[in-house]
Amino acid sequence: MATRIERDATRFHHIVRGKIRENMRKYVTHGEMIGRKGRDIVSIPVPQLDVPRFRFGKNKSGGVGQGEGEPGQPVARGDDEAGQGAAGSDPGAHVLEVDVTLEELADILGDELCLPRIEPKGDANISEEHARYNSIRRTGPESLRHFKRTYVQALRRQISTGVYNHQKPRIVPVRDDMRYRSWTNVPEPHASAVIIYMMDVSGSMTDEQKEIVRTEAFWIDAWLQRQYQGVERRYIIHDAAAKEVDEETFYHTRESGGTRISSAYRVAIDLIEEHFPKSQWNIYCFQFSDGDNWGEDNKESLRMLEDHLLTGCNLFCYGQVESPYGSGDYIHSLQSRFGDECENLILSEIENKDGIYESIRSFLGTGK
Description:
The protein is α/β, with parallel strands linked by helices. It is built from eleven helices and ten strands. It has helices at 2-22, 24-28, 32-35, 102-113, 147-161, 207-227, 247-252, 261-275, 298-312, 330-338, 356-364; strands at 41-46, 96-101, 127-137, 180-189, 193-200, 231-238, 242-245, 282-289, 315-321, 345-350.
């Protein structure tokens, strides 16, 4: 019976994965999934997936098969009756939500977008072992003696043998009572990759544009975490000035000042130099903007990008989110300066949520 249940569960899991694949483009652009993200899993609404079960009808309910039927008489209650009449007690139809691990979700995304596996550099695949004290043994050095366990064992022995005197309690451990802390060697992977997100939060970036950024970042995180044993994330916001912030502030800050992209580049450069040596870390920079930049700042921004960021990053991805208030000029400056010559610079124009799918393919399709 257990084997049959396991077989049925595996088959159901394959059906679920198939439904997710069919609707992958919708899920990628559906920001609601982020709200369902847990520690290690994501709950996904899977439409039109019915769990097999028996349904019993009502006796003497009439219809074809029970007495004479008339032409045009429905076999069962039609959909036109749904939602009509007084409140009832019967359950309605529900959309099934299934839990999928982030690793499974990343694999499905990679298959659907034909994303190549990333070949890390530096210490990406190196793990160090460290001791974790998580067990008890009968032998060991005196420095690791577990006094509480030893005392309890000695007390049990004395009680069971009848030598314990509760009026004169005296616990004397013998050699067989000794208990010692012990350890196992646990591999501890290096945090091998860092994702640096930069976003313009000036007045021209609306909540709609930020939601696009947040949705795309969710999928970027899922894919890169599947490729590396450890991933760090850092967030930089800017208008005319830039600063590093936490994730919550990153997505919910809006300023009213001007725009200097070079200010974000300066914070990113300082962050990399101080915390993430280029020889040891796989560095991914994702910049999102509506294309606005103070005219005189373009020259400095492009210089900083060429001299510092592009030389050490696996990828520098610029996503330009279309805004009714932004000029959209910065992507043209990048195209004019670098063209197609720079292999680790990827540019993407994201018109709306439907553009997220192809933007992810552009950013992560190089396998770097």
